[in-house]
Design goal:
homodimer, six-stranded mixed β-sheet
Chain lengths: 332, 332
């Protein structure tokens, strides 16, 4: 079976994104290196526009809309980074966006999404729903059907996956010769794009996924050889609270990812504190998944000994409410 | 009267520091640009080794020690970034360092300084004193006299000033054509080095200093044409709690700096929150001084209208205790 995307798709996405996305810095930390006995290269997607890699995939998708799709606009349902990514990409491309968010989403996220829509195309709005009585997918589909808007899924979509893969493409250009690449896993959009880029640019580089211990559906799926669905996991890594890999992302993960390892919430907090204290970076819990596998006490269950290696680490995002962030930095 | 340093000194410092300091990234924020109606270029010295620009000046000084000075080592008194900078530079150069710190300094700072000394030259230690009954300068001088150690002052020293100037040298290379450069002012080591670099590389670039409103000794000194000394100012910008400019730094400021503007502590907190929320950067209060002049409500008293301009902003450091940081992010 052929995979949903090839490296040509990632390269084409990179050309579309040039000058639009930040080429985020690859930061080093001698303290981190000493702690792991390895050379770590942190690809800082928390410094990406809107604060996460998600902007890459959203923009790569919307910029390929047909004129008709552009007129009708994009719809997305998300309470997280995907919502803001679609809102920002739509404004930049001057097309309408409708973002379906739960009415009890954090006020900061509602405000940020509306701010990205501001000054954009008429018809852009945040649509609130009651997550206890309404079905967000049905609401999204209604906008798609009634207004002809295009639903942009958060990960299970070839153009989204190709866009996310440009993060690894940049990292592998800036830090050649990596032995391993660690990437967080939610629905698998980021890791599938990154694995395709790594397979082409650094075939000897082992790509490892990192999931929350409480939400290891992809690890289970790889073990069983089919997509496993789990109840919404309880973890502070809200960007990885997915129930299952996508039907497009999972085959890529099966084909190109070496394995999935897990870390728990306490380890995520340790990694977030390391980023704040030693690297002066604000990283959201999900954004700290890959780094926690190396930096937190105990490491990640299932990860082989990587001492002496050159390791790429994707820091996927930094969008965390300041009050929550402050609480996580100081709790315990 | 000739100034303490020339651009050749800054350029020579840059050559000594190559491969030792991080060439810190110059980050952009479209949100910041929109808020100011200008193009801002943030030179992120919070991402420098040991978390602040101070490493530049300390290393540039210690690396020029004579063999005899190397054997005896360096002594510094500081409870802040200068202490850690000297400790780290000494370890890298394999010479002893004695850091004189108050016994009630934050435990995190004591621990960090000792960590930088660890594995370094024998004889390196932190010496504690009682700030209510003892004189740290006398203690530092005693070590200098009795052991032949070289006292490294935090700012009023040509090699320190030249080292700090490399921050602006890098920024002006990476962001050519700046119309203005904003730099925080404590004792004046950073701004004097930066002003010398700017005068040579970008003579049309107006260099502005930013002081805490409660500690505007340099602004007063410029107004009176002589160094004014004030009581230790009460401000959260602990790196700018200096009482007076240096005798070497002040003439450079007089000659090359356009003026000094001030911001208050509430504005510093606003800027710190902007960095955390929008740029995902941990910035200490002193590190936020220059940015606060542009980004905080009300701006800085005395700053001209810079809309439409290209403005460099030095983000000088990110060393802030996490508990204090969390409190500042969420207070009020």
């Amino acid at each position: 079976m052929s995979l949903a995307i090839t490296f040509d798709d990632v390269r084409a996405a990179a050309a579309r994104l040039a000058g639009v996305v930040h080429r985020t810095p690859v930061l080093r930390s001698r303290t981190a290196d000493a702690r792991c006995g390895a050379e770590l290269f942190f690809k800082c997607e928390n410094l990406q526009r809107m604060g996460a890699f998600k902007f890459r995939g959203a923009y790569n998708t919307l910029v390929q809309f047909t004129p008709e799709q552009r007129r009708a606009g994009a719809v997305a349902f998300s309470s997280g980074n995907h919502a803001q990514a679609v809102a920002l990409a739509a404004r930049l491309l001057d097309l309408p966006s409708v973002i379906v968010m739960p009415h009890d989403a954090p006020p900061a996220k509602l405000a940020a999404t509306r701010e990205y829509q501001r000054g954009g195309c008429a018809g852009s709005e945040v649509v609130l729903y009651d997550r206890y009585t309404e079905d967000r997918e049905a609401i999204g589909r209604r906008w798609a059907v009634e207004r002809g808007m295009t639903l942009v899924p958060p990960y299970d979509h070839a153009q989204v996956m190709a866009g996310q893969g440009t993060a690894a493409l940049e990292l592998l250009e800036d830090a050649p010769g990596l032995d391993a690449l660690l990437v967080c896993v939610g629905g698998g959009g980021l890791i599938s794009g990154c694995a395709v880029a790594a397979a082409a640019l650094a075939p000897d580089c082992a790509v490892w996924g990192v999931e929350p211990a409480a939400g290891d559906d992809t690890r289970q799926s790889l073990a069983l050889g089919r997509i496993v669905s789990i109840p919404t996991p309880q973890t502070i890594a809200d960007g990885a609270q997915t129930q299952a890999s996508g039907t497009l992302t999972f085959p890529v993960i099966q084909a190109l990812v070496r394995g999935i390892v897990t870390v728990d919430d306490a380890q995520l907090v340790q990694a977030m504190r390391f980023f704040a204290e030693r690297m002066k970076l604000v990283v959201e819990p999900t954004g700290a998944l890959a780094a926690a596998a190396l930096l937190a006490d105990g490491g990640a269950a299932g990860l082989p000994d990587l001492r002496g290696r050159r390791i790429g680490v994707i820091v996927s995002g930094g969008n965390v409410d300041l009050a929550r962030y402050a609480a996580l930095l100081t709790a315990g």
